[in-house]
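Run log, item B.
One chain of 225 residues. Sequence copied directly from the ordering sheet:
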Amino acid sequence: MDVIHYPTTADVFSEMLKMARMLGITDLIVLDLPPELLSPKGPPKPPTSKDSVLKSSLRVYRAVFVTPSNLSKLSNRTNQEFVFAPPEKACFEHPRVNGIIGAEGLMRKDRLHQRDSGINLTLASIAGKQKKVLLLDLALLGTDRKQQVLGRFIQNARLAVKARVPILIVSGARTPYQMRSPTELSILARWFGARPALTREAETLLRSHMNSSMIFSTKDNKVYK
């Protein structure tokens, strides 16, 4: 399972779908998916199974990112998409928010003896009780604040363990070559300090929402609304 951002063009997106299958990814959640790809025509036709380099079928899902000021509008949306949000208390407590993403990239100065990783033990405890998935977005490492973000990843992984928060490492890719295989994501999760049981719980929680969120499957090219 991985979470990516919709790239600059549909052609790049088609290449990302192919890369996902080459890497053995079976479930792909796409943020910022353009409205035209949600039409009855569905998204770009994926590669066929005749291509010998493709390892698996692929199920693609849509997701939206909401800010605290837009939480009130969620009641008007259908339950056919994932909802990810920034690390604000209101987002942790909202029932329609599935996951928290981007905490480590906030432009905050670290404290003297502790990193300001966007999440504290209080918020982590709320996330654990509300079963919100904490998403560590590897795309944040592609900035000039790489060392700071890396330290925040490790700190938030430790908070997740302490508060029993489901946690998932995602590539946050915008190009095919930024994508990561499930094995690589799993290794990175352990390196950051995330327990395998919590990553499995995160995947289970997201998969429990997937039937209504599915766009299409490359196995049968069927489009779901």
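Observations after the first pass:
- The chain is about 35% helix and 15% strand.
- Residues 2-223 form a domain with the TIM Barrel fold (CATH 3.20.20.140).
Flagged for discussion on Thursday.
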